[in-house]
Please model this.
Amino acid sequence: MKSPNDHLVVFPDSPGGARAHRQIADEARREAPRLVNHASGRPWLAGSWAPEELVVAEAGPVRVAAFGPSPVDRARLDALVSSVRELSDLDALARSLPGNTHVVASVHGQVRFQGTVTGTRLVFTARLDGVPIAADRADVLAELTGAEPDEDLIAASVTYGMLFTPLSERSWWRGVRQVPSDSCLVLPGDGAARSVRWWQPPEPDLPLAQGAEAVRERLRAAVALRRQEEGRLSADLSGGMDSTSLCFLAAEHTPDLLTFCWTGGSAINDDPLYAGQAARLLEHGEHLTVPDTDAPPVFAPPYWTIDTEAPRAATRGMNAIRYGIRHLVDHGATRHLAGHGADELFTGGAAYLHTLLRRNPLDAWRQLRAHQALNDWPLLPSLTGLLRGGDLGGWWRQSADDLGRGAPPPRTPSLGWGERIPATPWAGADALRTTQRIFREVAGQVAPLAPDRGQHEALTALRSAGPVLRLIVREYAAAGLPLELPYLDDRVVEAVLSIRTHERYSPWQFKPVLATAMQGLVPEVILNRTTKGDCEEPVDRALQEHVPDLLDLFADSELGRRGLIDVRRLRTTLVTPPRAGDVWSAQLEATIGAELWLREIAARPGTQPALAGPAGGADRPHPGTDPEETP
Model:
C-alpha cells in the first residue's frame, strides 16, 4: 500500500550521479530503502515505494520504469521497451500507457523523467553540489538541498487565491524547479538538466457523437484498471453525474462496490436525493450514507497539514474528508474512486466563442445569446467582450493592474482569458506589490496553451487543478486509502480534448460530453438532471460560526510575521465579511493553507534527508490540536 512518504529520486547516469546518491546515503547513515541501477551499474532510482508501485522493463542498455498506483504490467512494458532506441521513442510509449503514472527511462546514458499532462503526478529538479537530480516531490529535493520556501509565490497565493498556470507550475521552494506538465525532464550523463516539451493537446475537431464514443471507452478502461484483485473498491456517490458515472462503470466488474454519500440535502442541495435513486439501481452494492451533521463543519478546527511540498489551496473541508476516509477504511475499503477533475474536464466558460466567431459567426452569435440569458449578462458588454481582441500577456498585465482595484461590477461578462479577481482584503502592501511584479513578469513570457481559446481555457483549468488534487490524493494515502481520479488519466483527457469546444461547452446542456458518453450505462434521471447541488449557504454559515477559531489561528501568524498579510485587516474581514458568495472565501482557504504550510515547515527542525525514510514530524497534527482528530 502506498505511504504518504513514498517518493522517487532519479539520478543521472554519470560519476556525479553516483556521487550524489552516495552523499545522500552517507548523510542518512544507511542505504535508501529501495534502489534500481542503470544498465551501467550506477544508481538510477532510489527512494521509498510499495513493490507494486514500480514496474521496470529492460532491453539491453535501455530501461524504462512506470511509477504509479496503476502501472502497466511487466509483460506489456517489456513489449513496448523493445522498440525504444533513443529518448524521443518514449513519446509513443508514453502515449500508449493507461492509468496515471510517472515514466522514467534510462537510454544510452541519458535519463528522461515525466509526469502526467494534468499535473497530478509532477516532476521536480534541483542541483545537489552541482549535480542535477530529480524527484516526484519538491519537498524531498528541498530537504536534500537545503532549499527555502519561495516567499514571492506565497505572496501571490495570499494576494490572489488559487494560482493558475504558469504560476501553478512553479515550485514553492527556491532552487527546486517544477517541470511543466506537457514536458519531460532530460538528465544527460554530463551537463545541465533541461525540459523538453513532448505533449501537444489534440486538435478539437471531432463532432460530439464521434468523440463521446472514445471518451466512453477510455473512461470505461480507466475505471476497469482500478478493479481490486484483493481488498475492496469504494467510490463516492454524491448524486452528481461525475461520481455516479464512475459508480456504474465500476459496478460492471465490481458489483459489490462500496459507495459513500453524505446525507442531509436541502432545497438548494438535492444531491442526496439523486444519490438515493442511483443507489437503488446499484442493487448489489453496499451503500454507506453518513449524515453531514456527523462530520466536522467546514472551517472548523483542528487546523493542520501533513504535507510540506506545497500549501494546500483547498482547506475548508479537510476534517470532513478525513472523517469520511476513516468510515471507508472501517468498512474495509482499500482503494477509492472519486470524480475530482470532472468539472475542469467537462465544463468551461464562454471563451471558446472567440474561436467560434472566426469559424462560424452565426453559431457564435446564437451561443453568445444563450450564455447571456443563462448568466444574466447585459447584451452590449457581452457583444463588446466577444469582439474585443487582446492577447494573453495583456490579460496578465491587466490582472496586475486590477489587483489594486475593487471587485468587478455584478453581471460582468466573462469572455476574456480568465476571471478578474481583486486582491484579498488582508494582503500586505509588500505582498500586493510582489504579486503585481510576478504577474507582469508572466505577461512578458506567457503563450496560449492551444490556438483554440476554449482549448486553452480547458488546459488552464486542468493544469491548475492537478497540483491541488495531488495533495488531496496524498491526504487519502496518509490515512491508508489510495485515492484514484480516473477523469484525470491522460488518455481520458486526450479523448475529451479531441471534441469540438463549442460542442463540449454547449450552453443548452449540462456536461454534454459526459452525458453523451454515458448514455445507456448511467440512469437517464442522472444524465438528464438539470440542477447542481449548492452547498454555499451552509458553508457561509459555518464560516461565521468558526470566526473565533480562525482568529485564534492567526493570532500568532507566520504570514503576519513575514509581512505577507495584514492580520488586523484579516480580523476585520472575518468579523464583518463582504457579501455572501464573494471570492474572498476561496482566498481565505489559500491563506489558511499557506499559514499551515509555513508552520509545518518551521516545526520540522533537523530532519534527516528524505532517502533516510519518513520525516520526523510527518504524521503529527499541528501543535495544540487533538491527536484523536487525526486520521
Notes: The mean pLDDT is 89. The radius of gyration is 24 Å. The chain is about 40% helix and 15% strand.
